[in-house]
């Protein structure tokens, strides 16, 4: 589950991480009131207005701007709220902005020049350990830094038995070239950041930039947070942070129906039971010359109602030219799935206008094939994986 910047900062702050303070606004009038309140609380004269969408690179699309007075706050908020923000991480249509975050200006003058760093905590899947990744080149796309100056990317692997240790936090501060107060503040920041990541059951915490202010304080100016969906039962308060306006409507509908669905860009719809078989089926489609249009796992209860719902989800994608149903009958019997396919097909009538290939293997597979073949419907059955691939290839041609 992805969070907005302001939500990520709320979690960070709850674990003692210093953050750039801000107030959410949904209208230009609320934005002005938020700016006034921040001025009273922090003394800031300038304000940063940030679009709140689930995408990086907001500044490149005009979603992050500086306001030097209240009139500019209102004008910029009016410009950003309601816009379709296009960034390198959105589709060409962009994302609709429903709210903005009015932030204090933290780049104030002082004895030292402010400095920006990059920092993230995530799972290193090759070592099965959490990892702290950081760089003195903050404010830039980390992919660009990795490509152009890979020597400026540092990592710190965390032993799951001990968690992050103080010497590791000190090494981070040292590699970032800090000393004195800034060094001590960075050590605190790193320890608190990792605690927030671990205790919130997140799969990603990305702060870009982490700022060393002109008076040597360390704080998070931005936050990109992804919470592990599987751990949400432990965090009821985090569940309320989900913004379904930012998610694919079909994926939201699938989740409500108890189906695992991910929308892709291909032309062959997939209906499969089991994540491993689903991945293999997607490979099969590519080998057959097609592209998977979705990942869809119907689970172990593929009855008529569930199959019909899966059909409806797949057919919402206008790019779908064929559907491959690939079921292994282990927990669920193949003949039951076949009956579900037949009933769902009949219920949906002329809504199904693309060819369907059904491969059922496992318990009662022969009975299932017979049901499909004798249904009188425009559904082709297959027994072998290769046979299913050949039939997908044929219908695409």
From TrEMBL:
<dbReference type="InterPro" id="IPR013815">
    <property type="entry name" value="ATP_grasp_subdomain_1"/>
</dbReference>
<keyword id="KW-0816">Tricarboxylic acid cycle</keyword>
<feature type="binding site">
    <location>
        <position position="208"/>
    </location>
    <ligand>
        <name>Mg(2+)</name>
    </ligand>
</feature>
<dbReference type="InterPro" id="IPR013650">
    <property type="entry name" value="ATP-grasp_succ-CoA_synth-type"/>
</dbReference>
<dbReference type="GO" id="GO:0042709">
    <property type="term" value="C:succinate-CoA ligase complex"/>
</dbReference>
<keyword id="KW-0067">ATP-binding</keyword>
<dbReference type="GO" id="GO:0006104">
    <property type="term" value="P:succinyl-CoA metabolic process"/>
</dbReference>
<keyword id="KW-0547">Nucleotide-binding</keyword>
<dbReference type="InterPro" id="IPR016102">
    <property type="entry name" value="Succinyl-CoA_synth-like"/>
</dbReference>
<comment type="similarity">
    <text>Belongs to the succinate/malate CoA ligase beta subunit family.</text>
</comment>
<keyword id="KW-0436">Ligase</keyword>
<dbReference type="InterPro" id="IPR005811">
    <property type="entry name" value="SUCC_ACL_C"/>
</dbReference>
<comment type="subunit">
    <text>Heterotetramer of two alpha and two beta subunits.</text>
</comment>
<feature type="binding site">
    <location>
        <position position="222"/>
    </location>
    <ligand>
        <name>Mg(2+)</name>
    </ligand>
</feature>
<comment type="function">
    <text>Succinyl-CoA synthetase functions in the citric acid cycle (TCA), coupling the hydrolysis of succinyl-CoA to the synthesis of either ATP or GTP and thus represents the only step of substrate-level phosphorylation in the TCA. The beta subunit provides nucleotide specificity of the enzyme and binds the substrate succinate, while the binding sites for coenzyme A and phosphate are found in the alpha subunit.</text>
</comment>
<feature type="domain" description="ATP-citrate synthase/succinyl-CoA ligase C-terminal">
    <location>
        <begin position="271"/>
        <end position="390"/>
    </location>
</feature>
<dbReference type="GO" id="GO:0000287">
    <property type="term" value="F:magnesium ion binding"/>
</dbReference>
<protein>
    <recommendedName>
        <fullName>Succinate--CoA ligase [ADP-forming] subunit beta</fullName>
        <ecNumber>6.2.1.5</ecNumber>
    </recommendedName>
</protein>
<feature type="domain" description="ATP-grasp fold succinyl-CoA synthetase-type">
    <location>
        <begin position="2"/>
        <end position="210"/>
    </location>
</feature>
<dbReference type="InterPro" id="IPR005809">
    <property type="entry name" value="Succ_CoA_ligase-like_bsu"/>
</dbReference>
<keyword id="KW-0479">Metal-binding</keyword>
<dbReference type="GO" id="GO:0004775">
    <property type="term" value="F:succinate-CoA ligase (ADP-forming) activity"/>
</dbReference>
<dbReference type="Pfam" id="PF00549">
    <property type="entry name" value="Ligase_CoA"/>
</dbReference>
<feature type="binding site">
    <location>
        <position position="50"/>
    </location>
    <ligand>
        <name>ATP</name>
    </ligand>
</feature>
<feature type="binding site">
    <location>
        <begin position="330"/>
        <end position="332"/>
    </location>
    <ligand>
        <name>substrate</name>
    </ligand>
</feature>
<dbReference type="GO" id="GO:0005829">
    <property type="term" value="C:cytosol"/>
</dbReference>
<comment type="pathway">
    <text>Carbohydrate metabolism; tricarboxylic acid cycle; succinate from succinyl-CoA (ligase route): step 1/1.</text>
</comment>
<keyword id="KW-0460">Magnesium</keyword>
<dbReference type="GO" id="GO:0004776">
    <property type="term" value="F:succinate-CoA ligase (GDP-forming) activity"/>
</dbReference>
<feature type="binding site">
    <location>
        <position position="273"/>
    </location>
    <ligand>
        <name>substrate</name>
    </ligand>
</feature>
<dbReference type="Pfam" id="PF08442">
    <property type="entry name" value="ATP-grasp_2"/>
</dbReference>
<dbReference type="GO" id="GO:0005524">
    <property type="term" value="F:ATP binding"/>
</dbReference>
<feature type="binding site">
    <location>
        <begin position="57"/>
        <end position="59"/>
    </location>
    <ligand>
        <name>ATP</name>
    </ligand>
</feature>
<dbReference type="GO" id="GO:0006099">
    <property type="term" value="P:tricarboxylic acid cycle"/>
</dbReference>
<dbReference type="InterPro" id="IPR017866">
    <property type="entry name" value="Succ-CoA_synthase_bsu_CS"/>
</dbReference>
<feature type="binding site">
    <location>
        <position position="116"/>
    </location>
    <ligand>
        <name>ATP</name>
    </ligand>
</feature>
<feature type="binding site">
    <location>
        <position position="106"/>
    </location>
    <ligand>
        <name>ATP</name>
    </ligand>
</feature>
């Amino acid at each position: 589950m992805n969070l907005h910047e302001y939500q990520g900062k709320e979690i960070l702050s709850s674990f003692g991480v210093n953050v750039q303070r801000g107030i959410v606004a949904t209208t230009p009038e609320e934005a002005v009131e938020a700016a006034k309140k921040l001025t009273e609380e922090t003394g800031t004269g300038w304000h940063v207005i940030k679009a709140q969408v689930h995408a990086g690179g907001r500044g490149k699309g005009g979603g992050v701007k500086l306001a030097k007075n209240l009139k500019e706050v209102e004008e910029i908020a009016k410009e950003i709220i309601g816009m379709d923000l296009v960034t390198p991480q959105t589709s060409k249509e962009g994302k609709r902005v429903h709210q903005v975050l009015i932030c204090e200006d933290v780049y104030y003058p002082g004895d030292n020049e402010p400095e920006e760093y990059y920092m993230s905590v995530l799972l290193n899947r090759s070592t099965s350990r959490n990892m702290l990744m950081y760089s003195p080149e903050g404010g830039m796309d980390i992919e660009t830094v990795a490509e152009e100056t890979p020597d400026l990317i540092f990592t710190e692997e965390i032993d799951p038995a001990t968690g992050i240790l103080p010497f590791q936090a000190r090494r981070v501060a040292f590699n970032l070239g800090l000393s004195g107060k800034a060094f001590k503040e960075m050590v605190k920041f790193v320890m608190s950041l990792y605690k927030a990541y671990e205790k919130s059951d997140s799969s990603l915490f990305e702060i870009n930039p982490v700022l060393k202010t002109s008076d040597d304080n360390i704080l998070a100016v931005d936050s990109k947070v992804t919470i592990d969906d599987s751990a949400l039962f432990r965090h009821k308060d985090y569940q309320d942070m989900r913004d379904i306006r930012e998610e694919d409507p079909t994926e939201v509908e699938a989740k409500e129906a108890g189906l695992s669905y991910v929308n892709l860009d291909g032309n062959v719809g997939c209906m499969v039971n089991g994540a491993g078989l689903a991945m293999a089926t997607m490979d099969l489609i590519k080998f057959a010359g097609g592209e998977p249009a979705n990942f869809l796992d119907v689970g172990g209860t593929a009855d008529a109602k569930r199959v019909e719902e899966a059909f409806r989800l797949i057919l919402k994608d206008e790019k779908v030219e064929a559907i491959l149903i690939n079921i292994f009958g282990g927990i669920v019997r193949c003949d039951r799935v076949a009956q579900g396919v037949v009933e769902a097909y009949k219920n949906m009538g002329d809504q199904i206008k693309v060819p369907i290939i059904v491969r059922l293997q496992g318990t009662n597979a022969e009975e299932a094939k017979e049901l499909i073949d004798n249904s009188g419907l425009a559904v082709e059955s297959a027994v072998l994986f290769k046979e299913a691939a050949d039939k997908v290839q044929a219908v695409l041609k």
